[in-house]
Every structure is written in structure tokens, then in C-alpha cells.
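Study both lines:
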Amino acid sequence: MFCTRKNTTQVEKKWWKEAIVYQIYPRSFKDSDGDGVGDLKGIISKLDYIKSLGVTVIWLNPIYSSPNDDNGYDVSDYRNIMKEFGTMADFDALLKGLHDRGIKLVMDLVVNHSSDEHEWFKQSRSSRTNPYRDYYHWWNAERGKPPYRYSLFDINHDAWRYDTVTNAYYLHYFSPKQPDLNWENPKLRQEVYSIMKFWADKGIDGFRLDAFQFVAKDTTFPAFPKGFENTFWLYYAIGPHLHDYLQEMNKEVFSKYDVMSVAEGAGNNFTDAHNLVDTNRKELNMAYAFEGVDIAKSSGYSLLHFKEVFTRWDSAFANNGWLSIFLANHDQARLVSRFGNDNPQFREVSSKMLSTFILTMRGTPYYYNGDELGMTNAGFTNIEDYRDKASLAEYQHVKNTGGDVQKLLNEMQFSCRDNGRTPFQWDSTANAGFTTGTPWIKVNPNYTTLNSIAQETNSNSCLNYFRQLTKLRRDNPVLVYGKYTLLDAANPSVYTYTRELDGVKFLIVLNFSAVTAQAHTAIESSNATLLLCNYINPPAAPSLNNITLKPYEARVYKL
């Protein structure tokens, strides 16, 4: 795994390090039956498109049976498919279709919590002596009210819900319909491993463990300091025995299959992150840290801070462990609207620039569906347009407590997760070609000009630029395993770095600003080759030491 060594024969090569992961949000990707909800047959119909992107792994958001309180992240049966998405036969066809095209499939595994409609919870809540009682966290009411815990999705922000059946409270870090599972119970853990083996035996290629850094709780439930909810992750992440659980999971499941494993979140510090992915500890393959993606704010962000964060994480993992590189997913607003510039003048070039960053950094890149087109935030102005559980609960909370509702709506327009969940824009026909029915969430009105069909025939489109990038990464191991070195660190507008492996050296220069900027590389090279640029016919740089860049220009050189 020591990817900075100069001899590639000493690098521990793994397929998941070389993967280019494309995340599909199935509810919004392609609807095959006109009910307004994307489904598995819809994905199957677009497998050749997915193959054409040059990606090598699909990460699929949850498709398990679910009452759909939180878009499938409330699972009622881990061994069946949500009816809106199709059948197990559809899933088998999807898996075969991907594998026939040389693409692997990673499943989202949601085991911090289940649905309250799961049979385990139905049994657990039925009586205090039920064998499933300890599959969840209960606090008997005669003990008084339990110590406050913050809930991300609860209107009152309270993670304890009183249940009259047994006169007790149950814990839910997320929605009241998502009771948290009790990982201290070894029977529960074995149930989870059995579920994982069920899917691994079907032939899937990996697991992304949703909210897994939160599964381990101190079940004495001590009081937390007042105001802890402002930094709740410091109290929720990497709790007691989490590493024991992961090592057990590795022994029971990961060690028996050639699967990729990544958990949402990487803890609160580098020690946490290293412990998760240190090969000697036998836990996970890679860390998925949020510090980088959390930089973007509605008020803007500092490129100096952006560079510092990504450089710090890279240096911490330079000789041990492996990282994920991403700027968007289903829990974020659109890539170009958050980190680039979705003004029509700059949308395409800034989208391409950000894609260049993701595909030229060390670590496994994760890319969210639709970002290859430069899809933008939806621009919703009414609360009725939103579907996101967390945002709707927060809106009601602010309203109930006399807060500034308009301020919240303005923030939601920039950052709400629904911005990343609007239907994929396939073409300029009704509903962007996503469905013949009424879509479950509104289509972005810019679909008439921003869609995949319009970009297919444009050689300079975001879509075709993305295909060039994936090919460049697949063809050049230096972009996977090569040493990363930051240049021109104090430049407030330009991000410049090199990648180097076995005497092969690449220079990447990215202008993150809407104005012309200068990149100072301290590199003198008379035989550099410009491999890729997001502008047509860029002028040759008279000197690599001082490159003039147009707004949001991206260049990749081979030195």
C-alpha cells in the first residue's frame, strides 16, 4: 500500500485503489414504468451509457424493502427489493449486466438503524422480555427521562421517542422511524454478517457502510455537555468497541470475499481514520472523510483552506492507508453549485475543472451521477418543492420555535440534499426523459438545454471531457499511486500540484476563480506535453514556471 515508493513492484496494487466509482441514486436515475420513481430496470436500460463513462465501479444507494420514510435508508427487509425499484430478478439482471461490461457493484449497507417496520423492531417493541428487545436501545420510563441525545431528523431534535407499548423510550439518531440498532448485542451483529454474506454470495463487489461511525454507543448514556449538538459528531463517532466490531466484520465477511469496504465518515482525527484503514488492523479498505466536502458554504469558501485540507489528508495517508476523493454525493447539493460557478458563463468550465481535481488526486475517486453533465442546484424557493426528511424536519423546527424561516429557505436553496436528487437530465423531452409520469421530485428546469443527449454530440461538453478524464486516469498509474506534492501553496486562486511515480511526472494546474490568474510552479521544462485542458485550443505556456490561466481553467501536463 506504500504508494510513494519509487518502484511500482513494491506498491500493493488493489482493484479498489484503481477504481473510478460512480454513485447512482436509483430513485432519480431512470424510471422504466412511468410511476415517477427511478428503478432497477431504468438503470439496466442505461448500462451502455454508464459503460461509456469509463467508470469501473457503481455505488448504488439503498434498494432494499423500505416504507421509504428516508428514501430507502429505513430498511424493513435487508434481503428483498423495494417494490418501487423492482424485484430480485431485476437486481440479478442488473448485477449481471454490470459484470458483463466489466463494472463492479458496491451496495449501500444501512445498519446503524433499521426501519421501525422491520420485524426485529416489531418484536422488540412488543414486550420487555421479547428475544429481540436488545436488538435496539431502550430506556425504561420508570428510570425517568433519558439523557438528551440530538437527532438529525427529528422535529424537536430529540433522539429519544417514547413508546407506550412497553412504557419505554427508544433511541433514533435519525428519524423516529429509524430506531438505532444495538451493536453491543452479538446476536444482532451475526444477523448483519449473515445479511452481508447473502449479498456477497450473490456476487456483489463491496459495501459502503452508511453512518457506521455512529453504531457504537456508550450504553450507560452519560449526559453530554450543553450545546454538544453543534458538534454532535465528536460525541457520536468512533464509540466504544467500534474497531472490535469492524475487526469481527472483517473476519466474518471481508476476509472471505474480494470485496471493497468503506464506511461513511472517518472519525474525528487522523488516528481514528488510520485505525479504520490500517491494513495490519484488518478493518476497512479506505477512509471516507467529510472535512473536504464540508468546506463549501453559501457565503463562499477559501481555496487556501481547501488546499490545506486536501494536502493534510494526503500527507497523513501517504505511507499507510487509503483515501476516498470526492466533492459530492447524495447527501450534498450539486458539485458545480457548491464548489464551482453555476452561472451559465462559467458552469461548463468550472464543472470540468472540478472533475479534473477529483480524477487527478491520489485516492479512489467517487463521482456522483449527473455531475458529469454539470447538473446544477434546483433553485427551489418553496418548502413544498422539497422532499428531504432532514430539511423538512428542520423547517418545521424553525417554524415552531419562531426562527427565521426565510433564512433557512435561502440556505436550503444552496445546500439542501434535494439539489443533488432531482431527476437525471437525459434529454429535452418532458421531465428530461426521466419518466413518462409525474416525477417524485421536480426536474430542474434547465434540462431543456442541459442534458446528456445535447452533450453526446458536442466534443467539448462536460460529458465528453469527463470521459477523457476517466481514460487518462485508467491509462496512467501515476494518477492512482503517484506521490502528490503541492506547489504554489500561498496562491489564493490556483491549485497546483504534481503526481510522480517511477520517473513519470504529471503537473496539474487548476484556476478556482472567475478571473484570469497566474500559476507559479517553479518548474522549468522544455518538453512538457499538455495532455488535457478544459478550454478549446489553449495557448502554449511560454514557461511552465508562470502559466496564465483563464477563469476556471484546468490543465494537465506530462513533464
Q: What stands out?
A: Confidence is low (pLDDT under 50) at residues 1-9. The chain has 17 helices and 19 strands.
